[in-house]
Amino acid sequence: MKESEEQIPHLFRCPISLDLFTDPVTLCTGQTYDRPSIEKWLSSGNSTCPVTMQRLHDLSLIPNYTLRHLINQWLNLRHQFDLDPSVVEIKHNLVSQETTFDIKIQSLEKIRSFTHLKPGMNPCLVQLGFFQLLLELIFVNPIELESMKSRDFLKFVEDALFCVTALLPFSELGFLNFLKEESKFESFLILFELGNDSIKMCMCDLVEAISTCEETKELCIQIGKNRKCLQELIHLKTESSLKIILRLCSCSESNPPTLIREGVVQHLVSYIMNNIEKRGRNSLLSEAMSAIDLMLRTESGRECLMEDTNGINAIVRMVFRMCDHEGSESAVDSLMILCQHSLQAREEAICGGVLTQLLLLLQSQCSGSVKTKARMLLKLLRSTRDEATKHGKTM
């Protein structure tokens, strides 16, 4: 019984009871619990989400039919999978030193077809150890990797990474900490640098998973300090790579200096300028503004932003967005920092129309704290404008 319990994928365990879900339901916070467990929690007088500790504004319990379906598939396939000799043979072929590379590729293609055509099998593959096995096959010794940069090997890595990303939601992410080892991390960087677009996108999925897991926080910091990795992420210019950069900004106070040196400030400014006119709320815009605000706490961050011709303009345009009060607060905070340190920043902000933006913000439904900050900034900028007018300057 104990062995059976240990083999339950963590995605299928209730965060309260740690047992297999029997009736998964989702709260307004997006967290899923087993109905008996969360009902007991709420009936005890609790009004928060057990995992996030957010106060619940809605106590509705929404059945999670997708998770229930996956669990049923897993239960049905588990017995078949354990008895299926072909799966055992595939694993043996991948592990064995005597198996030819062609057979390994064929075996991997079978696993890829499982993950793609029969996703309900993915938890079973994780249970049988394929997640760890595939990672070990991908991130081999750097010396071996140098001698294996053939087209066939890169195809093998691409297929293996595709399988790994499919298995990620069902796997214990703490295992990824093996990448902290010097040789494994070097292999990780080589593949990120030299892989094709498909490999790089899979690597992004892997790094994104690392950046969202508390167990892999040290590895996330290690990645955030690595110049090659940051350059690749910036060069990709995809939404996935941007999400990773934003998480690297926030995961450690030691990461921003490296990120600033590698041009992340300019990258975020460019993203804001390219997306600010799009309608609707864009959470990445808000996060990008928050990351800029964080990096402006350093002198090097302020210098980088002031050197960017669109730097001040990007922040000014983020001051008032009706659908994004969080972004507005970060923009006001950022301008306050810049304007307190630089007359040039004050002059550029005024020329960029920040006074109008601040007045619009004060008339909006934003929080009292944001309005207080906006009034302080408005007072500072008006004194600068009045001083310039007194000396005959136009702003």
TrEMBL record:
Q: What is its EC number?
A: 2.3.2.27
Judging by the UniProt lineage, the source's domain of life is: Eukaryota
Alphabetized UniProt keyword annotations: Transferase, Ubl conjugation pathway
Q: Does the keyword Transferase apply?
A: yes
CDD domains for the chain: RING-Ubox_PUB (cd16664)
Keyword Transferase among UniProt keywords: yes
Q: Which Pfam families match?
A: ARM_PUB (PF25598), U-box (PF04564)
Top-level EC class: transferase
- What SMART domains has UniProt attached to this entry? Ubox
Q: Which reaction equations make up its catalytic activity?
A: S-ubiquitinyl-[E2 ubiquitin-conjugating enzyme]-L-cysteine + [acceptor protein]-L-lysine = [E2 ubiquitin-conjugating enzyme]-L-cysteine + N(6)-ubiquitinyl-[acceptor protein]-L-lysine
Q: Where is the U-box domain?
A: 7-81
Known pathway: Protein modification; protein ubiquitination
GO biological-process terms attached to the record: protein ubiquitination
Q: What InterPro entries does the annotation carry?
A: ARM-like (IPR011989), ARM-type_fold (IPR016024), ARM_PUB (IPR058678), PUB22/23/24-like (IPR045185), RING-Ubox_PUB (IPR045210), Ubox_domain (IPR003613), Znf_RING/FYVE/PHD (IPR013083)
GO molecular function: any one?
ubiquitin protein ligase activity
UniProt function note: Functions as an E3 ubiquitin ligase.
PANTHER family xref list: U-BOX DOMAIN-CONTAINING PROTEIN, WDSAM1 PROTEIN
Q: What is this protein called?
A: U-box domain-containing protein
